[in-house]
Structures are given as structure tokens and as C-alpha cells.
Amino acid sequence: xxxxxxxxxxxxxxxxxxxxxxxxxxxxxxxxxxxxxxxxxxxxxxxxxxxxxxxxxxxxxxxxxxxxxxxxxxxxxxxxxxxxxxxxxxxxxxxxxxxxxxxxxxxxxxxxxxxxxxxxxxxxxxxxxxxxxxxxxxxxxxxxxxxxxxxxxxxxxxxxxxxxxxxxxxxxxxxxxxxxxxxxxxxxxxxxxxxxxxxxxxxxxxxxxxxxxxxxxxxxxxxxxxxxxxxxxxxxxxxxxxxxxxxxxxxxxxxxxxxxxxxxxxxxxxxxxxxxxxxxxxxxxxxxxxxxxxxxxxxxxxxxxxxxxxxxxxxxxx
Length: 318
Fold this sequence. Notes:
Layout: H1 3-12, H2 15-27, H3 30-37, H4 41-55, H5 71-88, H6 90-95, E1 104-109, H7 116-128, E2 133-138, H8 141-149, E3 155-159, E4 168-182, H9 195-199, E5 204-205, H10 216-225, E6 233-234, H11 238-246, E7 252-255, H12 256-264, E8 268-270, E9 279-286, H13 294-308, E10 316-317
Parallel strand pairs: 1-2, 1-3, 4-10, 5-6
Antiparallel strand pairs: 3-9, 4-7, 4-8, 4-9
């Protein structure tokens, strides 16, 4: 298209159609999308046909029983996510034109992301900018990176195995996971636990502790250790996982610096013969293409400043 044709296309494009298409993709079906948008199913179907006419391509594979997007449909979905993110951020960006720092910061975080560096940044941010708001949303590390890429989160605190191009990564700290048991297990309080005794215990863990998850290296390490049992319990939240371990549902992994205080309180016991845990880095992930408000800029700046003068050795917790 030349410039004139592009301008005509933009003028004629109905942005409501794009939002309808976005909802259809998110709900993975016309029926659910109709309920969410409070319209009829024929209205959704008609909107999709109009959109396909405007783009002159098929977006949905109607020959499949399951909801399936064509290659063009997937590309348009990604673009709609980008557009929706930009539109929803307009209010936040405009708030930033005032001298006073206001606005909202949305942090996508792995539940086990605990560090004095993060705590100090949160305290400093709230003290300096009391009218700004902040939310800590617990997600998987992979989802956290995706949310930042789509500009749906201000930043994420995540384990990053495969960095995606176009994002910025700053290592906050390094950690190792230990295997822990509760006080009602026969292994509690013992320094002479053998691998065979560990292998006999049921296992609870994070859902990402598998060969395709962010904790894949840990999954490989425990299988190398000989402990490849299927978990009988899972949780994304470190507190819920810690509870299952403490009450004896199974043994499981906790970051060593997080688990130590529960060991000191006599509530957990580290199984030290498991000594093959890999090192993980908790990373601050940001998107340079996101138009951040003043609050977001301030929070990210505080976090980056907190690690600037601290050697990585002092940010290594094991």
C-alpha cells in the first residue's frame, strides 16, 4: 500500500472490530466472547466476517472442532494485544504530566522472588511517592516476561532461561533451591539422610519444575540425583508449597534463603545430601518500548539503583 491507501485503510478500520476479535481470541470461542461483550453470537460472527473482509484473509479455521487461529489470525491477535495495551495505558501516561508522582505500577513476580533488595525498593518507593499505587501479581516467570513484552505489566521479577529480544534484563540476585521436609517426616532433624530415603518420599513442587518449565534445570538435576517422582501436589505460591512440605504432604524445593528462617524456627529441615541444585538468577525484566508513567519510571529506577553498587557476590543467597 502507498501512503494514501494506508491512510484510507486506517480511517475505514473499525477499532471495535479489533477489540471484538481480541475478546474472541482471549475467550477462545464466540459463545464466551458474546457473553463477555453482552451481545449475540450472530453479532460476533458478523464482526469477524467484516474484519476478514477488511484484511482480505481468513482469521479462524472453521474446519476444526476446536478453536483454532490461522497464521494470519495469530499475527493479528498479537497486534491487537499491543494496541489494547497502548490504549489501556493512556490514562496512566497522562497522569504523569502532573508534577506530582502518581500512577500505578504493576509488577509481575514469581512468588519465591524474595530479597532485601526488593523489600528496600518497595519501602523507598512508598516513602517517596505515597500517592502512587503498586500491585504485586504472582505469575509464573514465563508469564511475567510475556506480560512485560505485551506491555501489560510495568516490569517482572522472573527466572529467565531464554531471554527474548527487545527486552532489558538486570540480575537482581542469585539463588539455589534446597529440598526440605516437615517435622512429621522420619527425615526431620537428621544429617545422615541417604538418597534412598529421599527417593522413598512423596514430592510436592512448583508447576514449573518440569523439563518444559522455567525450573527445567532443577527438574533435570533432581532426576540426575535419582529423584524423578511425579509430584502429588503443586502450587505457584511458595507459601502454599511451604505449607504442604511443613505438614508432611511431601518433600519439596524452597529457595535456600527463604527456607532457612523456617529451619531456624524448627518448622522445616533441609535435606543436605541433595547437593546438585543449579544456580538461578532472579531478573528484573523491563520493556524499553513501553511508555511508562512517572511512578513506573521511579520504581524501576529505584530497583536498578539498589543493585548498581552491590557486587553480585553480595546478591548471591546460598
